[in-house]
């Protein structure tokens, strides 16, 4: 039974949790800077554009709000629901000091307090852009009513996103806490759900690929917030939809709030199941039915349905199973590997879509990026991942067996998937059969290189201290230095080989620019002053000659010599770093 003053207590909890988030963000200057850039720069660009075109904006004629805008609002709302749900499941399923809070106030108070805190976080991040848009609407479009309606639309958007996302997130968390099967395979299921959600989002975000227009989502009622936001401006929306979205949002908040209350009341007061519960029940049933009990050991059972081949030696098999189990049971650290994927991949995909060359880019990108990702999954922090059992591991297995065990998962499970995906991407590309086959072979080669060199890089840049992600205090991701070094050693040579295979002219031009013309331009700029140094002019001429000589190389000769040298270099690098990893492990002494 909730206390009579639960709304006031929930608001206090929400404000307190929001202030804790602000303090934590203020202490992390790097994260604060990135968030500030993401919030301020787009707003300043929008403000600059509106100032430049102020006269044109004032004289804009009336026109109806297109379905594309409503669909875009609905798409971003659905994506926001997904993000909030993922955040609830992985980072903030419970409040801090849970025992104290749940014995002091009701579960309803705590649940609604968390909702208030999440709404405040979203509004704080979107506050400056909302302020800019409100100013533009009031002063340039002549709509004083926007001073009220735009903030109202923003608050409704944030509130409905948080409530709907939290309802979905707590439902998933409750499923993980009560289902042994889901708890056992949560990493695989979560990855599949993420890929499905992101795939659906990009299908609507880039209609050039799928043919699905964002206007197809205009029927989603939450998209009608666009009609509410433009009331009083030259953009003509539907008054009925504007009223409907207010009523619909209120209904969603009430129903979603009650659902969140019920879910949290169950989730916070039950004992989560163990991932091994299902196996135990199965074994007990087998014994009761006088069936032959399972012969697999607990470590092998922990990674099922994945099976490490039996032809490898037992120490290598155990290390491989241990690496697989760690990766499956600690999905939070894998999110750090997706940061460079989205940071680099999103601009490339967007550029390819806008230029209509997504088919030409897809196969090479798959052949180069997927091997790097698979190589980073299992062995980018092997010593740190061992934790307290590291001294035992150092004495129980040899360096050769340990490093091979770290390599096996990427080769056994990653290599077939990469070959298949690259082959499928090649089928929809404009390349010839020979080029498609070459990309498939290249993807296999890069996968072998990526998984072979990752143990040495991870041992050279280990991380032993855990970091906090939400309420998880023991997340141990690889160091960004290790991720960056691994990316440089895999992605740059891989991109060069892919370019030499499918676009040798482009590869030759890039090489000439990097090693010849770009240094020439830099040196000539430095030497452009009246007191220029003669040696800089000489060096600029030398680099210019290098660039011209590279452009003079025949394409066939460049492919054979340049590609062959890069391939041999990758093999040598793999061998050297493999031996280095074995040597590091054998001689490592824990501090």
Automatic annotation (TrEMBL):
Keywords: Membrane, Transmembrane, Transmembrane helix. Signal peptide: none annotated. The keyword Transmembrane helix applies. It comes from the Archaea. The chain crosses the membrane at residues 32-56, 68-85, 122-141, 148-176, 188-206, 218-236, 242-260, 334-353, 359-380, 401-425, 437-461, 482-503, 509-526, 560-578. Coiled coil: none annotated. This is ABC-2 type transport system permease protein. It comes from Natrinema hispanicum.
